[in-house]
């Protein structure tokens, strides 16, 4: 073997290595290799490997007077990558080329078709990633041994047999090396991309965990600035930019002198990303499209941020040199954008949930039972003649309730304030019950300053009076207790009324009750504090009902300041 022959072998294998590198870098071709059993994928693989097989006819290696080609490499790789259909297709194209161009005998073309089909049978049993370079080399070895057997069978003379056998041995070595090299480069690049993906995923998760508390407050200039600083710190890129749909929200790094927050978007690449809703990788200043003539940033990757299917902004990771955006930068930018989009959507959902809860709370405050108001006015009118002091007291209690219903109070109030409104309500209720109703209130001193959601107790008291005690004949008792157990505030409202039927209690606990009072209170509590808190209802008809409210113990801020806690 001469030096010239070695150079030819290196040249042929270099062409195969270059093809493998370009194939591994093409997301489209790799997607076709992973999912080859579609017409579009098979057609793409046939075109690629048919080109490799046909050019292999011209990668001739001088070996005495015979020609050694690399066409079988493309045929074998077509079957390994795309299955029997792709292997047969490339083999048929290569065989047709031999018949029409080189006027070859029919034996070699038929063998090439069979080689492509047989190598494709392996793809039916394994995925593309399961076929290792060593497995591909073994397939090439078997096919080349079959070719040597055909050469031995159809040789005319001993001299021709010897010459063809020497060429076939060299072809076998080149084919095995070529197939192994192609699959090795594919696996190497994919392993490298997996490493990039893992690093990018870890980095994206770190960024997401640090930015979550700020983005949950909304996607605005403040949260974007904090997010951009965190990304700039962790990724160590030259610049990080976050924009809204029409203006820049934050910019950190080189170029900050002209890429300023709250100003319109300058970069053409960012505008194009918002319009196209797709990632854009730019490697030159002209592609980036910054109108500032001395902008230090030359290349970048821009990824859109979504809320549902609507683009609400972009995130850009930029470099100061051309063609320096790496695979890791692309993975990081894409991962960060996906996680930030999820966080922004969660912030929107959280905002809508809070708005809905505020609307429900306002509706609950404004809800004054017309029958209750009518009965209260009638009772006050009756006391105006017989007991003016009592009428005056009832009017004060009614004024307290109406003021509370129509005023815009805080979402959290102290237990003491909530009980004041409840006692005003109970004073009016006792005028309806007469001497039948007794009220017992037992509140620990430290619980009086505890913060509870507004209107979380009054619906429970109303439910106990209207559905538990009012239908009862005889003496009625309503008990309200509050105490702290392991940093948990527990409030119980107990009545000795008629109780709740098991069927109705099951509907209430499942959230299918017709009334909104108990369900509303329970849902608000679980939304604020978690599912381990809320209401627990126990009823034993006809002996009464107990409703237990559990929330974390939290004191009023004013009380904490006075005691020196803050």
Automatic annotation (TrEMBL):
Assigned EC number: 2.7.13.3
Class of enzymatic activity (EC top level): transferase
Domain Histidine kinase: 457-555
Membrane spanning stretches: 6-23, 43-61, 73-99, 106-124, 136-155, 167-189
Mode of membrane association: Multi-pass membrane protein
Protein localization: Cell membrane
Domain of life: Bacteria
Main localization category: membrane
Example GO molecular function: protein histidine kinase activity
Classification via InterPro entries: Bact_2-comp_sensor_kinase (IPR050640), GAF (IPR003018), GAF-like_dom_sf (IPR029016), HATPase_C_sf (IPR036890), HATPase_dom (IPR003594), His_kinase_dom (IPR005467), Sig_transdc_His_kin-like_C (IPR004358), Sig_transdc_His_kin_internal (IPR010559)
Pfam families (alphabetical): 5TM-5TMR_LYT, GAF, HATPase_c, His_kinase
Catalysed reaction equations from the record: ATP + protein L-histidine = ADP + protein N-phospho-L-histidine
This protein's UniProt keywords: ATP-binding, Cell membrane, Kinase, Membrane, Nucleotide-binding, Phosphoprotein, Transferase, Transmembrane, Transmembrane helix, Two-component regulatory system
Protein name: histidine kinase
């Amino acid at each position: 073997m001469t030096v010239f022959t070695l150079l030819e072998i290196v040249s042929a294998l270099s062409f195969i290595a270059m093809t493998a590198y370009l194939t591994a870098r093409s997301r489209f071709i790799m997607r076709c290799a992973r999912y080859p059993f579609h017409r579009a994928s098979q057609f793409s693989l046939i075109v690629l490997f048919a080109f490799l097989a046909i050019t292999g006819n011209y990668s001739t290696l001088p070996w005495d007077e015979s020609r050694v080609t690399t066409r079988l490499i493309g045929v074998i790789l077509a079957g390994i990558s795309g299955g029997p259909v792709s292997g047969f297709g490339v083999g048929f194209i290569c065989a047709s080329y031999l018949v029409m161009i080189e006027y070859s005998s029919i034996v070699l073309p038929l063998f090439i078709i069979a080689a492509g089909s047989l190598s494709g049978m392996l793809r039916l049993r394994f995925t593309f990633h399961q076929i290792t370079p060593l497995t591909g080399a073994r397939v090439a070895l078997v096919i080349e041994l079959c070719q040597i057997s055909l050469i031995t069978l159809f040789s005319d003379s001993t001299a021709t047999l010897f010459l063809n056998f020497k060429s076939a041995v060299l072809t076998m070595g080149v084919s095995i090396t070529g197939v192994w090299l192609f699959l090795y480069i594919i696996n190497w690049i994919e392993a490298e991309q997996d490493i990039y993906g893992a690093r990018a995923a870890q980095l994206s998760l770190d960024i997401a965990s640090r930015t979550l508390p700020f983005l949950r407050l909304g996607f605005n200039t403040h949260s974007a600035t904090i997010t951009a600083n965190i990304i700039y710190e962790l990724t160590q890129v030259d610049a990080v930019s976050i924009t809204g749909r029409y203006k820049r929200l934050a910019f950190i790094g080189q170029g900050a002198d002209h890429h300023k927050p709250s100003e319109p978007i300058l970069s053409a690449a960012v505008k194009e990303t918002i319009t196209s809703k797709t990632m854009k990788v730019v490697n030159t200043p002209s592609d980036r499209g910054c109108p500032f003539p001395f902008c230090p940033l030359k290349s970048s990757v821009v990824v859109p941020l979504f809320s549902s299917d609507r683009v609400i902004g972009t995130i850009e990771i930029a470099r100061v040199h051309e063609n320096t955006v790496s695979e890791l930068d692309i993975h990081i930018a894409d991962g960060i954008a996906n996680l930030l989009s999820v966080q922004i959507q969660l912030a929107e959902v959280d905002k809508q949930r809070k708005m809905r809860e505020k609307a429900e709370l306002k509706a609950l405050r404004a809800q004054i039972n017309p029958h209750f108001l009518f009965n209260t006015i009638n009772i006050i009118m009756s006391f105006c003649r017989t007991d003016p002091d009592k009428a005056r007291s009832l009017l004060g209690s009614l004024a307290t309730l109406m003021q509370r219903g129509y005023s815009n109070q805080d979402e959290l109030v102290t237990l003491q304030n909530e009980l004041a409104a409840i006692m005003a309500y109970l004073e009016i209720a006792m005028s309806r019950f007469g001497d039948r109703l007794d009220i017992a209130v037992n509140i620990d001193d430290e619980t009086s300053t505890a913060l509870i959601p507004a209107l979380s107790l009054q619906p429970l008291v109303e439910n106990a009076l209207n559905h538990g005690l009012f239908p009862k004949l005889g003496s009625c008792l309503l008990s309200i207790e509050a105490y702290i157990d392991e940093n948990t505030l527990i409030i119980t409202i107990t009545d000795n009324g008629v109780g709740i039927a098991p069927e109705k209690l099951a509907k209430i606990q499942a959230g299918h009750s017709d009334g909104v009072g108990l369900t509303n209170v329970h849902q608000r509590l679980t939304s604020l504090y978690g599912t381990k808190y809320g209401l627990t209802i126990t009823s034993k008809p006809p002996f009464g009902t107990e409703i237990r409210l559990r929330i974390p113990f939290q004191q009023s801020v004013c009380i904490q300041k006075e005691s020196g806690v803050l």
